[in-house]
Amino acid sequence: MFKKTDWIFGSISIFIGAATLFLMRGLISLKSMDPAGPAAMPTIVAWLMILIGVIHVTCAVVLIKREGGKSELSNAGKKDSGGTQKVVMICVACVGYYFLLEKIGYIFMTPLLITAIMLSVGERQARKIAATSIITTAFLFCVFYFALKVNMPLGLLDSLFN
Amino acid sequence: MENFLIGVGTLMSFEAIMAIIIGVVWGTVGGIIPGINATIAMALLLPFTWGMQPATAVMMLAGVYCGGEYGGSIPAVLIGTPGTNAAAATVFDGFEMHKKGQTGLALYLSLYSSVFGGLFGAVCLIIFAIPLASVALAFGPAEYFLLALAGLTLICSLGEGNILKGIWAGLLGILLSFIGLDPFVGAPRMTFGMIDLTDGLEMIPLMMGLFAVSEVLKQAQQFDISDTYSFNKSSDTGMPPLKTLASYFRVHVIGSIIGVVVGVMPGAGATVASFLSYSWFKNTSKDPDSFGKGNPIGVAAPESANNAVTGGAMVPLLALGIPGSNSTAIMLGALMIHNIVPGPMLFVNQPEIPYGIFSSLFVANLVMIFVGIACIKLAIKITNISKPALFAVIITLVFTGSYAYNGEMFDVLVAFLCGLAGLAMRKMKLPHAATVLGFVLGFIMEANLRRALIISAGSYIGVFINSTITIILSMIVCVSLMLPLLGPIKRKFEAPKAY
Question: Could you report the predicted ipTM of this complex, rounded to two decimals?
Answer without folding.
Answer: 0.91
